[in-house]
């Protein structure tokens, strides 16, 4: 089965860290595409408040919960949380995430006077860390390089970028490619196995540098596919 034949109707997309700019932006786009979305946060109250605000902003129903509740409800669960605490959170949610497609969107980055740079990760990348912590889940890496500013901007109707999707499970990567392509202008492109996630996560530091230099919201395009 290819991503073009996958029907996402009826699936629930949970976004852990859905109250931050990136998570909130992805949730906005998925809900606008007609998908069922639940926002996860550290507390139920915060998740429900963010979901109510987003629902009113876009005229679509979005649910809210704490991260554990969102994990239980989601068929596809996006991890869009700060790198600091990433491992601890996933370890605590392993039971709720068992059997689910878990999409790690986290970029382990540091910032200093010279700008953004990729951090060393013992496991190799955030996606590989998730892969090791969630042996009962179908871990995929994706959505690392999409501008949160563009995702959240209601005036932007099409986001012209590709999303590199990484994973060892062909059906899971096809499904996440279809999810990416549900956002107008976005195309999901297979980018290799989990072991290749580091350079995709690290590329975000280069894009941040380009954005600062050119005052833009740069993404990536893969040619000839």
UniProtKB/TrEMBL annotation:
Matching entries from PANTHER family are given as:
DUDULIN-RELATED (PTHR14239), F420-DEPENDENT NADP REDUCTASE (PTHR14239:SF0)
The record's annotation in Gene3D superfamilies points to: NAD(P)-binding Rossmann-like Domain
| Key words of the record | Oxidoreductase
Q: Does the keyword DNA repair apply?
A: no
Name all Pyrroline-5-carboxylate reductase catalytic N-terminal domain ranges.
12-108
Q: InterPro entries per the record?
A: NAD(P)-bd_dom_sf, NpdG, P5C_Rdtase_cat_N, STEAP_metalloreductase
- A GO CC annotation given for this chain: plasma membrane
Name of protein: Pyrroline-5-carboxylate reductase catalytic N-terminal domain-containing protein
GO BP field: copper ion import; NADPH regeneration
Q: Give a GO molecular function annotation for the protein.
A: cupric reductase (NADH) activity
């Amino acid at each position: 089965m290819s991503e073009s034949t996958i029907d996402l109707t009826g699936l629930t997309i949970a976004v852990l860290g859905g109250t931050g700019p990136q998570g909130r932006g992805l949730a906005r786009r998925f809900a606008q595409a007609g998908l069922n979305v639940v926002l996860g946060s550290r507390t139920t109250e915060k998740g429900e408040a963010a979901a109510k605000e987003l629902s009113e902003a876009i005229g679509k129903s979005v649910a809210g919960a704490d991260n554990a509740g969102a994990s239980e409800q989601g068929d596809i669960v996006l991890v869009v949380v700060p790198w600091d605490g990433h491992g601890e959170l996933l370890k605590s949610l392993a039971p709720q995430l068992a059997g689910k497609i878990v999409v790690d969107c986290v970029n382990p980055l540091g910032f200093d006077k010279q700008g953004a740079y990729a951090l060393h990760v013992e496991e190799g990348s955030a996606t590989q860390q998730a892969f090791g912590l969630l042996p009962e889940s179908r871990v995929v890496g994706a959505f690392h390089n999409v501008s949160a500013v563009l995702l959240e901007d209601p005036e932007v109707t099409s986001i012209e970028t590709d999303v590199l999707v990484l994973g060892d499970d062909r059906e899971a990567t096809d499904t996440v490619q279809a999810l990416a392509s549900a956002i107008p202008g976005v195309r999901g492109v297979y980018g290799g196995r989990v072991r290749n996630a580091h350079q995709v996560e690290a590329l975000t530091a280069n894009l941040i540098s380009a954005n600062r230099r050119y005052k833009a919201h740069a993404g990536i395009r893969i040619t000839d596919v």
